[in-house]
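Request: Not sure, any thoughts?
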Amino acid sequence: TGAISSLQRQMEIQESELRRIRSEKELLQKQLREREAQLQAVSDKFFSLTEEQRQEEITVMMEEENHNLRQVVAEQESQLAEQSKLISELQGTISQLRAEAVSTRLHLLKHRQAQKEIQSQAEALQHKELQTRVALERISSKFERYRNKIIQATFSVEGSQDPQTELTDDEVLEAMQKIINERMEFQQKLKIKGSK
């Protein structure tokens, strides 16, 4: 948005410069019309002189006016050429600034679209994380129930004592392994004696 505002300010400056040049061009044209009016006034004055005086005065004045007019025309043509060149450059700059503004807007639209996609992905990940936590809590609950059943089965055997402190998983496994070994030894002894 800042880039677009900057481009718009540059366009406004260039357009203001273009208006100033056009205003100067109109002023030069107005001055030329005023000179033509002055020439017409001089011509009207010469009609009141004698024919000979008129011819002499006309000749001198026409030569002087022609010289002045040629200078004015040359200056105006030069200024108009410079102004036309500057106008063309300004129009090119304005076109470039407009193209940059369009490109910046497209870039912003793409950036906003990318932000929406990232937001959507983040929401999907949060939903998946929530589902994973729920599943983990269920598994943990099942594991805890299974562990309690193991402890209950392990320490409900005749001759075993209830634990006095919280058991670790390794201690539970060790107690189970001890019972399994004792039962296997007992089974082995029964086989040796031939008992079913």
